[in-house]
TrEMBL record:
Catalyzed reactions: N,N-dimethyl-1,4-phenylenediamine + anthranilate + 2 NAD(+) = 2-(4-dimethylaminophenyl)diazenylbenzoate + 2 NADH + 2 H(+); 2 a quinone + NADH + H(+) = 2 a 1,4-benzosemiquinone + NAD(+)
Protein name: FMN dependent NADH:quinone oxidoreductase
Signal peptide coordinates: none
Residues noted as binding FMN in the record, renumbered to the chain: S10, S23, H24, S25, M103, Y104, N105, F106
Pfam families referenced in this protein's UniProt entry, alphabetically: Flavodoxin_2
Assembly and oligomerization: Homodimer.
Taxonomy of the source species: Bacteria, Pseudomonadati, Pseudomonadota, Alphaproteobacteria, Hyphomicrobiales
Domain of life: Bacteria
Domain Flavodoxin-like fold positions: 3-208
Cofactor(s) required for function per UniProt: FMN
InterPro entries referenced in this protein's UniProt entry, alphabetically: Flavodoxin_fold (IPR003680), Flavoprotein-like_sf (IPR029039), FMN-dep_NADH:Q_OxRdtase_AzoR1 (IPR050104), NADH:quinone_OxRdtase_FMN_depd (IPR023048)
Protein EC: 1.6.5.-, 1.7.1.17
Amino acid sequence: MATILHIDSSARSGGSDEHRFGSHSRRLTRTFVDKWRSIRPDDEIIYRDVGINPPKPVTGEWIHAAFTKPEEREPWMNAELEESDRLVDELLRADVIVAGVPMYNFGPPAQFKAYIDNIVRVGRTFGFDRNRQGVPYWPMVPAGKTLVILSARGDYGYGPGERLEDQNHVEPGVRTPFAYLGVTDVHSVAIEYDEFADERLQASIRSAERDVEALVQHLGSGLSKAA
């Protein structure tokens, strides 16, 4: 049995297939999860909505607590890291992380950045030793996890080799910290043309949903073979 960590980060509360002003990224993550359940009904799904219930941003107290050795932490430090610990625990349990991350002003939503800041934890998801030969940092998240980034954009042409590739900080902004932790198997699908609200948007939605369903089939069958 596999575990899927389903994360939504859109500020919109529903999918675009539910109402006019709904979220395209939520629509894609639900498509992913529904398709996954249809072919692997016994797998565990963990749901985390950081768009509606964002994690607390990192503070000076959080940093002080995180960089204090666990055996030396005072009670308030453990309380300060409680939410972060829950998020890290979920990440470590997951085999597949499917994250809905819409483009807000060329990058991920602040809510998702707060999530990333809470899971990049010294001693839990990455190691650090200034006396280590070579690079003093190393990933601590177990190998074999897969990250799926499902996004939505108002404009078009943000993909590799396209006209706005250098302005797309969503996928790179998510891939980089996850790779730092050890998650390097990454797939992405995005809906474009949202601001145009015409047939190009509808075609992009249809194409993205097909790609998501094909990706689920590919990943799900791969896990079955591995098992």
